[in-house]
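User: Quick sanity check before I run a bigger batch. Here is a single chain. Can you write out its predicted 3D structure?
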Amino acid sequence: MIKSSFDKFLNIWHSDLKDALSIMTQNKLFNEELKAKGYSEEKIKSLRKSYPTSKLHSHRLITDLADNLLIGSSLPSKKSNTASSRWSRNTSISNYALRNANYECENSKTHNTFISKKSGHQFVEAHHLIPMEYQGEFDCSIDVPENIISLCPNCHRAFHNSEDTLKKELLLKFFNSRKQGLASRGIQINLSKLLEYYLVE
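Assistant: Done. Predicted structure follows.
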């Protein structure tokens, strides 16, 4: 279960509390979560005044909390141009999913690649099990960690370009391992529909 930003915040209650609250209450997603939990702006202000200012270790604090923001709380927007239209993807959500998978290929941990200059970890790619092009068929966001698989480039290509036998094997494997997590997000899909999305008979 993904920790919410507020739950994570409670774990660092004794560390830079006042400054952390000041930063996080400016974040739209965090504010939405606080409202859902019944925390008013007045209550947050009261908490901020109740504790003394301490030195802000901004990089550690912001990075730590950003990793645990309320993820996938709203529907993605649709980008359009003259050539095509596509649903936007939140790279921070994909990065969260890759970190959560320890930068390993979830199809097989034995699949090694190389160290990414950007992340400093093994290079893996994020793949949406339910393709983002079908976001319009869902009432909730499918750009969530439960729908994102960490894959080596070879396995990622297999999802898109392999023969139906292998593609069906991959889809069955990850459908079974992800269906509960997807359902927890309100994402309802059956295997037949997923196979249809990938044009697998």
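The radius of gyration is 20 Å.

User: Great, the batch can go ahead then.
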